[in-house]
Amino acid sequence: SVVLKRFGYFLVFIVALTLRTLPELLSGYYPVGFDTLAGYVPAIIALPDHSPMNLFGWTWSPLAVYLLWFVQFVTRIDPYILLKVAGPVFYGIFTVSFYCMLLHGLEWDDKKSFMVALLFLLQPAVLRTGWDQLREELGLTFFFLLLAKTKCDIVHATRTRPLTVLLLSILIVF
């Protein structure tokens, strides 16, 4: 359909953002999720000290914490408010990357990809990931983008697009 061709990415993002925002609106001042309160807030406040990240074993994949810290450093926004906004935004981007993988990686049509993306974002396990596992969400986002760029053939793409595979692979684990 014409609407999905033009606005599919935007619609998937808005649906995911809206769905993920609902628990944030109901939870009051504090962001949703155990890791969010116990790990991300102390890590963002403490950086460049990595002690809170060491408690959770996050020093090996700190990209999400560094991104959140950078936004907090530049804007001086309260870390709790930052995480209440970042959670839904990460979830929206995560779902859009999955939709992109369906469209370009699996080469499905717009309608099928859109419906599967909606089913994906409604799954309890996926919602659970979106509540407080921002690092995993970010890694999976880069993984889905890698699958989309390589048309789900990473082995062949390593020979034809080695820099793309290398860059996205590093971002997946970082």
Account of the protein in words:
α1 (2-26) packs parallel to α6 (110-122) and α9 crosses α10 (162-173). This protein has helices at residues 2-26, 34-46, 51-56, 63-75, 79-105, 110-122, 124-132, 134-149, 154-160, 162-173. With 174 residues, the chain is mainly α. The chain is globular.
Throw out a few tags for this protein:
single chain; 174 residues; mainly alpha; 10 helices; globular
Tell me the number of strands: 0
In terms of per-residue confidence, which ranges show pLDDT below 50 for 5 or more consecutive residues? none
Report mean pLDDT, rounded to a whole number: 92
Mind describing the biggest β-sheet? none
Percent helix, as a range, is over 70%
The Cα radius of gyration reads 17 Å
Cα distance spanning the termini: 37 Å
Give a quick rundown of the structure:
With 174 residues, this protein is an all-alpha fold.
Helices, strands, pairings?
Layout: H1 2-26, H2 34-46, H3 51-56, H4 63-75, H5 79-105, H6 110-122, H7 124-132, H8 134-149, H9 154-160, H10 162-173
